[in-house]
Amino acid sequence: MSILKGVGVALVTPFNEDLSVDFESLTKLVEYNIENGTNYFVVLGTTAEAATLSSDEKKQVVEHIIKVNNKRLPLVLGIGGNNTLEVKQQIEEADLSDFEAVLSVSPYYNKPNQEGLYQHYKALASTGKNIIIYNVPSRTGQNVEAETTLRLANEFPNLFLIKEASPNILQYFDILRKKPEGFNLVSGDDEFTLPVTLAGGAGVISVIGQGYPKEFSTMVQLAFDKKVDEAYEIHNKMVEITRLIFAEGNPCGIKVVLAEKGLIKNYLRLPLVPASEGLYAKIKAEMAKI
């Protein structure tokens, strides 16, 4: 599964003014990323506002991306939730013939303990599908601790990768240091991409990457090549914009970047709202610097 290496981007779902899905802009976004060095796509992740899409819309988005991508880049499908049996059933019933793996966020709101988190992923592993663990405590309210990740990694070979977005970078390093062969980690935090890749990570599943695919994929490749100074030059150039896009939540910031680049229109579905005028101005100013 080393095919999922480098920069994966968690694609946004572009909307029209009437908040219907904007498939034309989605085509533009996919093409822009393929042309500029993105390594793989994550479809229907949290960045896609998947929670606000109907099941019909999800199906249409998936079919559209498969068609436009036309087997050029590997694809990962987001299927997650806080009802283990339902998530397991969705994974079993999904047509995954066009996908390398499923990205499954740890259960949110319920706040299971570490044994509950272990049992959740054990149940998903029993589907036999390739599954990426996704730990994002800032959104789920519960951290999948390094020990739990390593326990899963050692017991279930099809849990082959973690998208780690803990705010504690030491947790990334602990997993990288102790992980079994064949298990990988990608950064789920754009700002940690470079140090985590240099420490042995397999790159990033990125939000900012879809707005700056050339810069981000170049930086990660330089990290793989251990060209540290050149990689940090790009990292330092991208830090401010990376922080700004998350200042009022995701994906409102990245949608400003993509709208300014003429790739999508700046609409979000409730409960999310577009970036404030102040943030929009800051992002635009930072883009001009880049």
Using only CA atoms, what is the Rg? Answer: 18 Å
Oligomeric form: single chain
The computed structural class is: alpha/beta
Largest sheet: 8 strands, parallel
Short description:
With 290 residues, the protein is an alpha/beta fold.
Describe the 3D structure.
- The protein is α/β, with parallel strands linked by helices.
- Helix content is 46%, strand content 13%.
- Strands 7-6-5-4-3-2-1-8 form an eight-stranded parallel sheet.
- β1, α1 (23-35) and β2 form a beta-alpha-beta unit.
- The model has no long low-confidence stretch (mean pLDDT 97).
Features:
alpha/beta, single chain, 46% helix, 290 residues, eight-stranded parallel β-sheet, 12 helices, 8 strands
SSE inventory with pairings:
Layout: E1 6-10, H1 23-35, E2 40-43, H2 55-69, E3 75-78, H3 84-93, E4 101-105, H4 114-125, E5 131-135, H5 137-140, H6 146-155, E6 159-164, H7 169-178, E7 184-187, H8 193-198, E8 203-206, H9 213-224, H10 228-245, H11 252-260, H12 277-289
Parallel strand pairs: 1-2, 1-8, 2-3, 3-4, 4-5, 5-6, 6-7
Helix pairs in contact: 1-2, 3-4, 4-6, 6-7, 9-10, 10-12, 11-12
Pathway: Amino-acid biosynthesis; L-lysine biosynthesis via DAP pathway; (S)-tetrahydrodipicolinate from L-aspartate: step 3/4
Organism: Chryseobacterium edaphi
Catalytic activity: L-aspartate 4-semialdehyde + pyruvate = (2S,4S)-4-hydroxy-2,3,4,5-tetrahydrodipicolinate + H2O + H(+)
